[in-house]
Amino acid sequence: MKRIHLTLIFLCILFSFPAVAEQELIKSQTQGEVTFISGGIGSDEQNALQVIRADYNLHLLFSIKDTGEYVSDVRVRITDSSGNTLMETVADGPMLFAKLKPGRYTVTVERRGQVAKQSATIGSTKRTSLSFAWPQEQDN
């Protein structure tokens, strides 16, 4: 019986390592009361983000219109309903997830001088996903 117990404990530890390893690919950050994480470059980071997606109630995705090509280096600012800036960062990849208190927010993003805004309402159990897509750049 003791041997079975030890085997089960060993298996639990063994199977918990992949989840820990995936979370180590991307580090969460905190600004004030907002915790966020960004990344998604490459399949390893995308998989790691999907594992922890449910821990965040605001999901942002950045891409190019019509192609669906992901983009990074997007400046992100989240303000509350009073206009106070709660978080400002540059996304490390095409996905940014944030933990916000319930309320109404404005998400402002900028890429290469092009600015876009969207409103987000976060409830106590509701998650909100916003996508931002920029036009394709023309080669001269």
UniProtKB/TrEMBL annotation:
Signal peptide limits: 1-21
SUPFAM superfamilies for the chain: Cna protein B-type domain
Keywords noted in UniProt: Signal
GO molecular function: carboxypeptidase activity
Protein's UniProt keywords contain Signal: yes
Name recorded for this polypeptide: Carboxypeptidase-like regulatory domain-containing protein
Organism listed in the record: Candidatus Methylobacter titanis
